[in-house]
């Protein structure tokens, strides 16, 4: 018979590979923190962007042209390859001649988690990656990444007037021509040049609001953010330039939202910071709704519904466009990577016809 120490050692050797294999799935992931060097590096970027000139109609662009048209900056926040790059490529570079007057009315910026080994899809995305830092879901690192994108776009081109944050799981639901006209039509058609809106979801009466507010501790957000000022909303948005500057200039609210959460299950800083900040700073300047359609029916662990190839159809695209506001949804989320082929088959006949 084997003695007891030998049996224990043998059992340990047998179970060790299983522990190594399953421990990452059982134990909570290690929380990514923002180091002091990273924070100082971001602050330097934000200060440079804040000092940049805000574009106004008729001002001189970086290329020296006067009365140049405003642009849309598309900010891709990703930790995987850009699965739907071929669709976005056709979105930015349509072949139809009637759309050519919309060329060069956009810029692209990509923040890819440096640990994810994201490959450039080439084309319009080539050389559009910005210096990035590690990100993690349900952590302030996603706020930092979005601010980094905003600051880079503000600094890069004074003609960037709208800033659309999207993910690798997003697709356009209309042509670029439609998106551009939707965002800029109120300013183009009115002789009074009314102030444009930022399109960001701002919710104040959700049942989970209190749990999210106290995720860092009961009174931690005070006095800067009382509970009646706390908001939640969508992670993805379309901001005007002045609101982008508010975001990159903020220090007060950021000091609260960068704190670690005690209750990780109720902690989604990327869904709290932007709606709270903008609703406090300029409540009349935000739409309170997003232009990105996300299906939260049957969500799992805070993740929205992910569309599969079997669900992709012209009817789905038309349904995703419908909203309760006066604006159509411009982007749709969340699609699995294997939806690329059926979506590509509908780009000219369905998606870009709207």
From TrEMBL:
Spell out the Pfam families in the cross-references.
Branch (PF02485)
Question: How is it placed in the membrane, per its record?
Answer: Single-pass type II membrane protein
Primary localisation category: membrane
> Which InterPro entries does UniProt cross-reference here?
BC10-like, Glyco_trans_14
| Cell compartments where the protein resides | Membrane
Keywords per UniProt: Glycoprotein, Glycosyltransferase, Membrane, Transferase
- Single GO molecular-function term? glycosyltransferase activity
Gene Ontology CC entries for this record: membrane
Q: Name the domain of life this protein comes from.
A: Eukaryota
Q: Which residues form a coiled coil?
A: none
UniProt-recorded name of the protein: Uncharacterized protein
């Amino acid at each position: 018979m084997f003695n007891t120490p030998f049996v224990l050692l043998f059992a340990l050797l047998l179970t060790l590979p299983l522990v190594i294999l399953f421990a990452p799935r059982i134990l909570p992931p290690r929380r990514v923190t923002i180091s002091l060097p990273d924070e100082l590096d971001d602050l330097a970027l934000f200060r440079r962007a804040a000092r940049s000139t805000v574009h106004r109609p008729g001002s001189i662009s970086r290329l020296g042209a006067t009365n140049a048209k405003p642009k849309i900056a598309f900010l891709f926040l990703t930790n995987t390859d850009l699965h739907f790059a071929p669709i976005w490529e056709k979105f930015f570079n349509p072949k139809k001649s009637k759309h050519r007057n919309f060329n060069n009315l956009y810029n692209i910026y990509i923040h890819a988690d440096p640990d994810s080994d994201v490959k450039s899809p080439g084309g319009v995305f080539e050389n559009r990656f910005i210096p990035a830092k590690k990100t993690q879901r349900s952590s302030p690192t996603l706020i930092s990444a979005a601010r980094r994108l905003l600051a880079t776009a503000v600094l890069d081109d004074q003609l960037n007037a709208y800033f659309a944050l999207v993910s690798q799981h997003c697709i356009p639901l209309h042509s670029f021509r439609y998106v551009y006209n939707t965002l800029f039509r109120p300013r183009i058609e009115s002789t009074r040049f009314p102030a444009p809106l930022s399109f960001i979801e701002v919710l104040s009466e959700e049942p989970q609001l209190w749990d999210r507010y106290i995720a860092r501790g009961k009174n931690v957000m005070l006095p800067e953010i009382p509970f009646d000022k706390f908001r939640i909303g969508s992670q993805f948005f379309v901001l005007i330039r002045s609101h982008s500057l508010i975001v990159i200039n903020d220090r007060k609210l950021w000091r609260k939202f960068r704190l670690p959460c005690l209750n990780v299950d109720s902690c989604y800083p990327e869904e709290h910071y932007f709606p709270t900040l903008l609703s406090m700073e300029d409540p009349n300047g935000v739409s309170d709704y997003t232009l990105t359609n996300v299906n939260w029916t049957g969500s799992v662990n805070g993740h929205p519904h992910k569309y599969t190839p079997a669900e992709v159809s012209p009817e789905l695209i038309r349904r995703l466009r419908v909203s309760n506001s006066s604006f159509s949804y411009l982007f749709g989320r969340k699609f699995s990577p294997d939806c690329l082929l059926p979506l590509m088959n509908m780009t000219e006949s369905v998606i870009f016809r709207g």
